Amino acid sequence: MNTFSSNKFPVLIRKLKxxxxxxxxxxxxxxxxxxxxxxxxxxxxxxxxxxxxxxxGKQAGIAPWIPLIDPACEARGRSIARVISLASRYTxxxxxxxxxxxxxxxxxxxxxxxxxxxxxxxxxxxxxxxxAWVAAGRxxxxxxxxxxxxxxxxxxxxxxx
Length: 161
Prior knowledge:
- The chain is α+β, with helices and mostly antiparallel strands.
- It contains five helices and five strands, in the order αααβααββββ.
- Strand 3 (127-136) and strand 4 form a beta hairpin.
């Protein structure tokens, strides 16, 4: 019997076709973002938050405000959101909300897109749940629509805001 299972080959073809339909931005940035997610995870595990906080942006307290951006920046924010979402599905390490938010902050900063990075908490059946998310204008880059679910306990904005 062939060691390469016949049912895996169609999956590979489907994945390659799906990748071919992606935008050039996603194709170019998939592997670098995958690496950034790993570096972000490593930094989160090894560096105290006080040392990492200045890298996240300008601290804006707990007021959850979102910087306004133009349509070109919104389009770039959506592209960044898609590539982070895609890359995070294929990491062998945990790429939950915090590494995604740090990676989004790096990418948005690289492209000069104003952003807000938020930390929030929610009380769910007696337990506290923490969450991190990033928004750029109307675009929820990472973390989904979290403003209605989580109470903001910290906000960082891009330096230009």
